[in-house]
Amino acid sequence: MASYTPPDFYQIEGLLAEEERAVRDTVRAWVEEHLMPVIGSCYVEGRFPRELVPGLADLGVLGANLPEEYGCAGLNNVAYGLIMQELERGDSGIRSFASVQGALVMYPIHAFGSEDQRRHWLPALAAGRVIGCFGLTEPDYGSNPGGMITTARETRDGWVLNGAKMWITNGSQAGVAIVWAKTGDLKDPKSIRGFIVPTDTKGFSARDQKGKLSLRASDTSELVLQDVVLPRDALLPGSGGLKSPLQCLTQARYGIAWGALGAAMACYDEALRYGKQRVMFERPIAQTQIQQVRLADMITEITKAQLLVLQLGRLKDAGTMTPQQVSLAKRNNVDMACDCAREARRLLGANGILAEYHSMRHMANLESVYTYEGTHDMHTLILGEAITGLGAY
Amino acid sequence: MRIAVCLKRVPDTTTKILIGADGKSIDESGVKFVPNPYDEYALEEALKLKEAAGSGETVVYCLGGDAAQETIRTALAMGFDRGVLLQAAPTADGFEVAKALAADLKDGGFDLILFGKLAVDDYNHQVGVMVAELLERPCITAVSHLVVAGTAVTAEREIEGGIETVTASLPAVLSCEKGLNTPRLPSLKGIMAAKKKPLELKPVSLGAGSVTVLGLALPPERKPGQIVGEGPDAVPALVRLLREDAGVI
Ligand SMILES: Cc1cc2nc3c(=O)[nH]c(=O)nc-3n(C[C@H](O)[C@H](O)[C@H](O)COP(=O)(O)OP(=O)(O)OC[C@H]3O[C@@H](n4cnc5c(N)ncnc54)[C@H](O)[C@@H]3O)c2cc1C
What ipTM goes with this model? Predict the structure, then answer.
């Protein structure tokens, strides 16, 4: 099959700067060469392709929008978004790995960490020598993380953490976990603080979540913290309250809005290619009205989503982006990507259920993306509150 | 070790080519341009040689319009030290291009000047060889394996039915063949660093040349493929089609 031809119906290419295009093309080439040949089998085997991490790190993908002085690429946010788009064009699991490493582990260390913590952790995380994970969700606190019951008790020379975290991406692979815990009253979300927990600390354990039918090429684990004793400087000194982890989620959701777009583009490309090739009733199926509705709807939604994230990125680079704008983009782009993937899969007929094609893998993956980082519903409620001023959750 | 690589900006080989209104050039609107793929082997080899030598300079030369700055920056992002753009409108006469390049390369003190074995847009196989001749340097074409030891260059070339090993001494001009190496991707840090590297713009005027393009035509459209069936059961039908429809057996 000929190579991937990304859709660009509105000449959005022309709105990108030269280095933004160069970054995108580099990651696109990397995905084509290194990820596409293995992703189908990784997905079927339920295996995260950890062997690809050094290559990703060498390219400079990890924490790419953080400053060069910490070993990062120092890219702007549009270029960072384009990286996420290209990674998720390959697979949501790989993009999830990069999102967690960059936006949920490196970002909080950069934003809330001390200079010592930054110098110690960021270069190792950027180089992929250490994998990180982000523990916020708990078995009984998903959409409402402010209710968490993991605790951090201050002692004479440090902290003791107790609790359990659930659905943690990279959990079993990680060398370090950013764990969110309450330092005060369990009813007080303001007492939530972030901790840097090396995963070889006594009392810390991670267990792979079995039986996933989605995001199978990603590691999702449960973390248990049982009397985990940490030194004083395990605390991220700049973190304080639920707003700190939410600030991290805003970073990750920004990347997800771009990433989901990449998955949709991959599905559209596959559907278009297949539709033109597959002959039924003596004509290509793409020459039938029903399949053209599918393709026309997909390209319309993809084009809108492309413009949406590009403007979001420009706002982020200008420093004026709001979390509610990110919610709108995450909600819209993931939902439209779910639709594109499902319609593409259907257009492909029986072939559409095979791992050899990509649409069904994207379709199943995107169900996780729909749920994590704030479910679609929660972003609806965030938007509802933003425009009415009335909170409904 | 000082190494120059001459790089051409060409349409991406996966681009669907349309012929322009004049019937003699391609319609460039919406066409994605990339470094000539054979030149990428030259770029990679230059970087490897410099890394192995531990010191030296790598310079990328390009003759073309202003848009070729982007192509040069791809090489800078891969790790080249600096770039030179000889600004000129494209010409069909490779000798004019070779003269302009040679004039600038002459006093550069380069131990090696590398080219791709051909440019995929015009398939001329000319410029590298002509530059070597103009500079009166030894030239080895279509190199698929290279060893540089001191001033001795040993190169392998794939010839019909075998491999030819050739030597020459520096300074020399080589053109590179597929298989010589695996070109690296520019890293994201490299892309950012490329913006700060020197890129010199030098307007040059080319002679009128003695070759003119009369016209371009697209190859005849290929008929769509047909899947006859799968496994041994499909063989009789395939043989029949190859014999009766295609007439090739
Ligand atoms: C593959 C995967 C990877 C993940 N990775 C991480 C990670 O790395 N780190 C991490 O901390 N977490 C991670 N998560 C957890 C994820 O963020 C949560 O699953 C998510 O926040 C939803 O929580 P929940 O599953 O408990 O669902 P619930 O909160 O129980 O929601 C169930 C349903 O109820 C709806 N709902 C909830 N509240 C309301 C309301 N007020 N009004 C209307 N509807 C409501 C939801 O929209 C949803 O449809 C991951 C999840 C998955 C699936």
Answer: 0.87
